[in-house]
Specification:
This protein is an alpha+beta fold and about 350 residues long. About 25% of the residues lie in helices and about 30% in strands. It has 2 domains: about 180 residues, FAD/NAD(P)-binding domain (3-Layer(bba) Sandwich); about 140 residues, D-Amino Acid Oxidase, Chain A, domain 2 (2-Layer Sandwich). The strands form 4 sheets. Strands 1, 2, 9, 10, 11, 12, 19 and 20 form an 8-stranded mixed sheet that branches. Strands 13, 15, 16, 17 and 18 form a 5-stranded antiparallel sheet that branches. The longest helix has 20 residues. The radius of gyration is 21 Å and the shape is elongated.
Amino acid sequence: MHDIETLVIGAGVIGLACARALAQSGREVMVLEQHGLIGSETSARNSEVIHAGIYYPPGSLKAKLCLPGKHQLYAFCEENGIAHERIGKLIVAGSETQLPELERLHRQALDTGLTDLVFYDRRKLQEIEPELDCVGALWSPSTGIVDSHGYMLALQGGLESHGGQVVLNSKVRQIERCADGYRITVDAGGEESTALTCRELIVSAGHGAPGLMAELPGADAPKAYLAKGNYFKLQGKAPFSRLVYPVPEPGGSGVHITLDLQHQARFGPDVEWVDRIDYEVDPARGDKFYAAIRSYWPGLPDRSLIPDYCGFRPKISAPGEPAADFRIDGPEAHGFEGLVALYGMESPGLTSALAIADEV
């Protein structure tokens, strides 16, 4: 007998989505979360964008899961009254030399099944976004924004309505195999470590997943890297009514403008490779934002950006390497029955969470 049938490590958006789906299938499910709040790391510190599925190579897990995940997320928001808006996004080329990259992105999107992208020339862009200065753009009408906190609370509610539970302030220290399952060592609220056993284990621990799994012989866990993304808030009225992204850059999507549900504008994230988590935003990093933003919005006023917040992408590819795909390692990958480990769950993880849960 085990203490719990199915244990999920990590109450971020993906862990909660997986736990909800497993509970709906009739399992007894418990989620262990090291912090005192659900989703307080990667899931709470991002652009809150519902991605259309543009950037991901055909055949990749990101491509496979983002498109259905997007449709599932819009439907979930409607059914559960979660604030969201299908606001749309422009991916802009600031010069003629960037137009081939827009064409490549358009072809790639078509190859993955995304058929609603439209190319806009300078004249069309001047009509719809007069403050924008660029030679062309891809218009993505199915990109949106969402209240990520409301989304996670609804996932938790769905889990709990099917008998599952989330246990906060419970940091997992070690995973071991035991007879017909797994033994998990947990530090609970500063008390002495306790142990739980389970038959099935889902490791959805974000930045911590590679380290936890590395100590399990034969797991073949990847190396973890941290890419910090800093955001700056615009003082004053937003210049655009849509999201605006430059062509992608290594490690991320470039310094773009996103709007929250109150249409307050913020810029970011940049890409800062670091070796530890520190949630301070260095005001000096904003100096580089001005030049990047003025490549498509020359009217950005001086001294109008103020530090806002930052987040960390749980990378499994090193600086200079191509972006890694999602890794969802089940028994066929590591040989351990009843265990699924998730690695590299960065963007579009928020959008894809419900589809990832189905895969798990």
